[in-house]
Every structure is written in structure tokens, then in C-alpha cells.
Amino acid sequence: MSREKQSVVIAGGGSTYTASIVMLLIENQDKFPLRKLRLYDNDAQRQEPIGKACEIIVKERAPEVEFTYTTDPEEGFSDVDFVMAHIRVGGLPMREKDEKIPLKYGVVGQETCGPGGIAYGMRSIPDVIELIDYMEKYSPNAWMLNYSNPAAIVAEATRRLKPDSKIINICDMPVAIKKSLADILGLDSENDIVDRYYGLNHFGWWTEMYDKDGNDLMPQLKEHVKKYGYASANDDITNPLLAEASWNDTFVKAKDLYALDPDTLPNTYLKYYYYPDYVVEHANPNHTRANEVMEHREKNVFEECRRIVENGTAEDTSIVPGEHAEFIVQLASALAYNTNERMLLIVKNNGAISNLDPEYMVEVPCIVSKRGVEPLAMGPVPTFQKGLIEQQVSVERLVVDAYLEKSYQKLWQALTLSKIVPSASVAKELLDDLIEANKDYWPELS
Ligand SMILES: NC(=O)c1ccc[n+]([C@@H]2O[C@H](COP(=O)([O-])OP(=O)(O)OC[C@H]3O[C@@H](n4cnc5c(N)ncnc54)[C@H](O)[C@@H]3O)[C@@H](O)[C@H]2O)c1
Ligand SMILES: O=P(O)(O)OC[C@H]1O[C@H](O[C@H]2[C@H](O)[C@@H](O)[C@@H](O)O[C@@H]2CO)[C@H](O)[C@@H](O)[C@@H]1O
Ligand SMILES: [Mn+2]
Fold it and tell me: Is there an atom of ligand 2 within 6 Å of 241 CB?
């Protein structure tokens, strides 16, 4: 069956993830054929090396695809079927501040959790809304698939500000965890695991995992996770993410998350909420994850793109697509070609978790077709998870309130309510520091 060709724009063209998504798109021309592929960024200098390298990749491997890169919204967003968005407002230097400011107060400093995530959310909201405005102006029938973090806060903001927009907010953490679990079980792919999962973004739990024949995988997985977390039992690391010490630690730490509730398997991000003391003790306040990313992923990607441009060929490139790229392209395929695939997505609850407010933005398995996404019923969550979710979702909603009302009070409440901030007084000191650090990005609060 021949598949209709698609036109895609990657917004945040200068992202460290762009080249791997382009590589995957190009390698999948039989499954997801393209007529046009564009990169869009609001920073020409940042985007240029990635744009030039991708131009070579496309020319060598799929010359029939029309490729361009631009900073002009009209050029970027016209005649588009899919917007794949992954912007980072303020870049990695602002991520560094999100991580280091809380650590000054002995509080977890993290990209999407706690005060760092709140600060990042306040920066991301207007720019993601701007991308939706461009999409709706120039390609009103397009879908936006959004990775831009913090996805939970962005999802709550888009629900409120753009309730009718065709945006789906997504996260690759569950896929990365399932990839490890598939390795552990000896399965070919994370797609061989069918799961039941509930929660918020970076804040959820699996209740069931079974294989395509309906066999229960949980007993074997629980035995493994109890001892090794989500890491491999031996040094035979197949998941490239685990070659990084900080990610390997996070995957091993999953065993302590599991210990707290052996009825479920946890999202790795719960470590920041269950064990904030451990996280702070093991953090270096002068060298955080943002520094590691700048020293490794960012440096490597930009060096490789410059090398491709200098050599004029990508024949021997080290750029490879991973599960991050696979997940977003799988979602686009399901929407374009009506595959009715089951995927974990961030959606309006609408009864999927029966004892939570229908308006909450939750992360649950959904069926994806050309009609959009339909969340599956996960039933009620137990008291432990319900208490945690109600607290965390209230933080996310207060951040959006604070953004919309330009309210100092609401943001102070959000920080105070965050499980990893010890008191209202620490929350206030943190808020005043974060306001100063974000003065070029946040609305003025009063
Ligand atoms: N949801 C997920 O699970 C998931 C997974 C991985 C990465 N991410 C997110 O993807 C994003 C990219 O991460 P990265 O490390 O590659 O960041 P990066 O800083 O390398 O790239 C982000 C790009 O966005 C551009 N940008 C910023 N504001 C923009 C705007 N308003 N319009 C257009 N472009 C804009 C920047 O110029 C930059 O080129 C981040 O938000 C990150 O948190 C999410
Ligand atoms: O610290 P970073 O920038 O390496 O990671 C932060 C992101 O972590 C998760 O994404 C992982 C993903 O799970 C994995 O598959 C692979 O693609 O690496 C990513 C990180 O590099 C998380 O889901 C994202 O929301 C974070 O931004
Ligand atoms: Mn994520």
C-alpha cells in the first residue's frame, strides 16, 4: 500500500536531538515518506551547523525530499502536516541556573522537577504557545507533537490557553525504561511490551506489563528490579543511555523506588520526590547535569555536524537515531496512517484515571489513529499515588495560574507545595533568586 507523503517541520532546529530525528526520518522513507523536511529555530547561528549537516544527510540519502532550514515562521510553518517541537527557552545556560540555584538552598536542582522545572515552565509557556500560533496561522490542519519540557507544565498551559489545538505533549522516558526492560527480558524491542501505566509526566507508575501473547512479564521484571533497578544485571550494556554514569545511577536507583511500592514499577523521575536528600547529597553544586550535557551531548553533536559540513559528506557519520526519534516518528505515523497504535501520551484525563479530576493532564496509554488520541481506562489509583499526584498536579496548575495572572503569590504557593521544597521561607528565597535569574524571560510578577 502506498503511503501519502508528509511534510514535517522540526521546531528547535538547533536542538541536540534534531540530527538524530532527521536521520531516523530519512532511514524510514518506506514507512513514513516525506515530501518536505524543514528545520525552524529562532536562533540562526545555533541552527546553522545542524541545518547544513542535515542538508548533506538528506541530499545523500533521500534526495527526493525537499529540505530547508529557516528562522522565518512563515517559511517554517507553511504547508506542513507535522510540527515536531523540542525547543529549550534560555538554552542550556538557563538549565544550569535552574539546577544550581536550588542546590544553594540544599534543594534538588533538576531540569523538570521542583524549582528548576517550575522556572523552566515559566520560560517555556509563551514560546510553545507562539509555535502553536504559527502552526495554526500557516498550516491549520497540522499536528504539533511536542517534546519541549517541562512537558507537564506545558501540557497544562496548552490545555488552558489552546484547548482546541491539535497538540500532543510527549515524553520518551517510559520508552527508554521499557527499552531497558526489553533488553533484560531478551525481547527484540520495547514495542513488544504492552503496558498499563498511570500518573503525570515524569511522575508515574506501571501496574502491568505483558507480552504480545498476553503473558504476564511483571513477576520476572519485579525480581530483576528488586536487585538491579532498571540497569542490566551484568556489564553487558546494550542501552547507550546507560553508558553515562549519571543515567546509569538513575536506572540503578529504581530499585529503591520500587521498594516503596512493590505493586508497581516506577518512573525513574520519582527519585527526585522519594529521595531528595540522597539526590542533593550526591549532587555537585558547581557541576550539574547541564554541564555534563554541554561537555558531552551538545559538544559531540555540534562537532559531528561541523565535521560533516567540512568533509561535505555524512557517509561515515556517527549520528544514529535512538528511541527518542523512534517514538515521535511512530506517533506521527499513527496519526498519518491510522495505525491504531497503543502509546503512552500526556492527555486530558477525561476519566482515564477514575478517581482524579477529569481536567488533569495525565500520562496514560492511548490508542492513536488519524482521529487523534483516545486514552484508555486505567481505573482508580491507590491512596499513596493519589496523594502524590494531587500534590504535584496542584504545583503544575499553580505555575500556570501564576503565569496567566502574573502572580508572585501563586508562584510562591507552587514552590511551597512542591514536595522537594522544605518550607515557605526557603520557597520565598528561591523565588526571589529565580525571578532575578529569569528576568529576561518571565512576565513581571506582582
Ligand atoms: N519530553 C521529553 O521526554 C524530552 C526528551 C528529550 C528532550 N526534551 C526536551 O527537548 C528540548 C531540546 O533539548 P536540547 O537539550 O536539545 O536543547 P537545545 O538547547 O540543544 O536546543 C533547543 C533549541 O531550541 C531553540 N529555541 C529556543 N526557543 C525557541 C523558540 N521560541 N522558537 C524556536 N526555537 C527555539 C534553541 O535556539 C535551540 O536551538 C528541551 O526542552 C528538552 O527538555 C524532552
Ligand atoms: O539530562 P539529559 O538532557 O540527558 O536528559 C533529560 C531528558 O531525560 C529524558 O529523556 C532521555 C530519554 O529518556 C532517553 O531515551 C534518551 O533519548 O535520552 C534522553 C535524555 O538525553 C526525559 O524523558 C526528558 O524529558 C529529559 O529532557
Ligand atoms: Mn520526558
Answer: yes
**pLDDT for residue 1:** 64
| 269 noted as active-site residue | yes
Q: Is the CB of 11 under 6 A from ligand 1?
A: yes
Residue with cell 502572580: 407
Non-local (6+) Cβ contacts of 55 within 8 A are 67, 69
Low-confidence ranges of the chain (pLDDT < 70): 1, 235-239
How far is ligand 3, taken at its centre, from the CA of residue 131, in Å?
19
Catalytic-role residue among 230, 269, 272, 403: 269
Residue 2 confidence (pLDDT): 82
ipTM of the complex as predicted: 0.98
**Is the CB–ligand 2 distance for residue 293 below 6 Å?**
yes
Instruction: State the pLDDT at residue 371.
Output: 96
Neighbouring-strand partners of residue 195: 209
Looking at residue 237, its pLDDT comes to: 59
Question: pLDDT per residue over 279-320, tens digit each?
Answer: 999 999 999 999 999 999 999 999 999 999 999 999 999 999
Pairing of strands 361-369, 372-375: antiparallel
What's the 14 CA to ligand 1 centre distance in angstroms? Answer: 8
Question: Atom 21 of ligand 1 has which residue's CA nearest to it?
Answer: 15
Q: How far is the CA of 11 from the centre of ligand 1 (A)?
A: 8
